[in-house]
């Protein structure tokens, strides 16, 4: 990519504290909104890094029974898509350790789906692991957007 990135094509830098609060307050519903937003940002920069559209990412979560498969699929796909975007669209901040993120998310989801049904005390552990994986992903994207803005010589992207 030889041309300078346009500010509107860069993703939004999200505040990790606000993100955690929104996840807690909305009982993880914000996760679906966040998925839609990050897939929009990723695909706006490069459609080659993932075949999942923003509508599929968020919408398939609401299909009964299929959503169990989809949750695991998307948990593997979005960290991989972030890492591929970072590699295909330099400059970037720290590369996302997508293996660690996938492990955190899958273990957190399994704890919430299976173990917390029999032992509710584990629900908090599952939530902590899920939130940690989401925060690591968002921080990798934040670093990527900031690196692009710095390379373009412009002001830092807006943070929310």
> Are there runs of 5+ residues with pLDDT below 50, and where?
1-5
Q: Please indicate the percent range of residues in DSSP E strands (runs of 2 or more).
A: under 5%
**What's the main sheet like?**
none
Count of discrete domains: 1
The ordered string of helix (H) and strand (E) elements is HHHHHH
Helix count equals 6
- For the secondary structure, the number of strands is 0
Helix-and-strand structural type: mainly alpha
Distance between the termini: 27 Å
Helix content: 55-70%
| Overall shape | globular
Mean pLDDT, rounded to whole units? 89
Alpha-carbon Rg, integer = 16 Å
What does the model show?
With 160 residues, this protein is mainly alpha-helical. The chain has one domain. The chain contains six helices and no strands. The longest helix has 30 residues, at 123-152. It is globular, with a radius of gyration of 16 Å.
What is the topological layout?
Blueprint: H1 16-25, H2 30-45, H3 54-59, H4 66-88, H5 98-118, H6 123-152
Helix pairs in contact: 1-6, 2-4, 4-5, 5-6
Overview in brief:
The protein is an all-alpha fold and 160 residues long. It has helices at 16-25, 30-45, 54-59, 66-88, 98-118, 123-152.
Key phrases:
160 residues; disordered N terminus; 6 helices; mainly alpha; globular; single chain
